[in-house]
Write a structure and sequence with these properties.
The structure holds 2 protein chains of 2 kinds. Chain A is mostly helical. Chain A folds into 2 domains: 53 residues, no CATH class; 166 residues, MetI-like fold, CATH 1.10.3720. Chain A has 13 helices and no strands. Chain A starts with 31 loop residues before the first helix and ends in a 5-residue tail after the last helix. By secondary structure, chain B is mostly helical. Chain B has a domain of 172 residues: MetI-like (MetI-like fold, Orthogonal Bundle). Helix content of chain B is 70%, strand content 1%. Chain B is built from 15 helices and 2 strands. In chain B, strands 1-2 form a two-stranded antiparallel sheet. The longest helix of chain B has 40 residues. The N terminus of chain B is likely disordered. The chains are: A mainly alpha, B mainly alpha. Chains A and B meet through α1, α4, α5, α6 and α7 of A and α1, α2, α4, α5 and α6 of B.
Amino acid sequence: MATINPELLREDSKAGFEHPLKLVKRRTKRTVSDWVILAVAIVIGVLIAAPFFIILINSFKSPTDYASSGPLSLPRALYFDGLTGFWNRVNFPEKLWNSFFISGTVAILAVVISVFNAFAIGIGRVKGRTWIVILFLVANTLPQEALLYPLYYMFKQVGLYDNVWSVIIIFTVVQSAFGTYLLSSVYGTFPKEVLEAASLDGASRWQILWRVIVPISRPTLSVILIFFFIWTWNEFLIPLTFLVSNANQTVPVAIASLQGDRLMDVTTTSASALLGLIPTLVFFLIFQRTLTRGITAGAVK
Amino acid sequence: MVSVSAATRSRVKRSDDFALLPSTGKSSGSFWLYLIPGFVLFTVVILVPLLWNIYLSFTEWRGIRPPVWIGFENWIELFHDTKFWTSFGNSIAMIIAMVVVPTLLGLLLAAMLFDLIGKKFGGRIASFLRATYYLPQILPVAIAAIVIGWILRPENGALNTVLKGVGLGFLQHNWLGSPDTALLSIMFVMVWVQLGYPVVIFMAALQRVDPELYEAAELDGANWFQRFRWITASIIRPEIFVVTLTSTIAALKVFGPIYTLTRGGPGTSTIVPSYYSYSEFFQNQQVGYGATIATALTIVIVLLTIGFIKAQNRAERAESDR
């Protein structure tokens, strides 16, 4: 979802998930009401995690096991037919590859475009830059429906409809609009001395961009890259509209389009949800720290 | 969002108008050259489609023969279209589920985790609970909807089976398939998805609050709620603004869960503007009318964004004048 706000990545936030909060240690007595509040917080956590757990256990059950022992019991025997059945039916490796290829290409291209734009706006300080930034920012809040049909018509005309490149081009622009906004403010505070020194050494702007600015801002760029990748992976409306044939679909679209299919029994459907959530869970585990830094770096100066 | 104001302010300072990078003899062209790829792509993918879509809202077009100009007919129809107003009403329901409930509950949970659980039971438990609350946020929202949709299945769904198992069989229900509960079920999905976002942001913000302020207030006899209201809420107000704005925009754009779970039904009970315009585009081939709905949605979102940013700037100025 695009509700994450990786602003101000320069500020190092200490609030990584794996790092306990740093708090002033005070020796206070735990009262009964403290325990009650802890219990409430844990119950809410259990309620939020419960759907994941329910999907997990039921994806390994046979439909008969499900019918006889219900959704809350552990599987009597591990049953993989639901998972493998769905895996083969949608040709899951192909969908994974499509999602991976689209998201990866978008992330790289969008970072490159954002760097170019931010170089001109943040470091070049071109005239009217405030308006350019506002323009990109507004573009980011637009509902995709407002662009959908014209884009659909345009891509049909040029023969890119039902081609992963239509989605790649669109999301490169959408993500780089946000990247430009973010990176322009980061580059606006780039240390001037470094740039002057490079320039005295006779480096051209192009060389300074690639040999000085990009390497120094690499940590920020990698955070943005990861966000672009995950946001693109999670997108739904545009891939749904543009990638109609089976062979081009992304993971969320392929899974969503088979819901309600008569051939899907109850545990196969659960398995399909499991396959849909595994990739993002894996990304979350790999990029935990980066993601939290991005989310909590917190939108506020 | 917030830094728009900062950018506007920096315009006032003249010294800012010089490039950080001095021009040298060996310069490789103007900085404007670097904006060309971005501008070209932006024009083709955003600007032209946006203007085209606005133009289409004044036409009748079925997608094949050229569009026919019909002036304001679509717009007049839109204002009398009860389905459209229902869809906006449902957007309000989405705002309740994605903004009001998660923000209020998120404030409470963040304060609980940070103030109480973090201090009395250790930061590790607080961090773990926060990560748990955040879990649904990482899913593609269509997949999140499928997860809850699976639990709410009418026949042999997990919820109905459990209800029956504990002797509450009379409560069994076709949750997503009946007009009385479909919207509530979708709202439930959205609260589940959204709750972790404010919790994470607010907990990060709470680290800015100086504990000494609390101690002083405690000495002055302020109770927990008073401290929360006058210290915490006012210090983390910028985060509250950002969370409210981004979540409101997201709530107005909800599409994936509606598409995967109900397709707007039963009847029009869960229709939202984005799904309505999508179905006009691709199912009814009423492209002009679909474009009108999409344009109306765009106008609402842009006005809301401007309003929010203005309100926030006013609040910031009031703060600095104090």
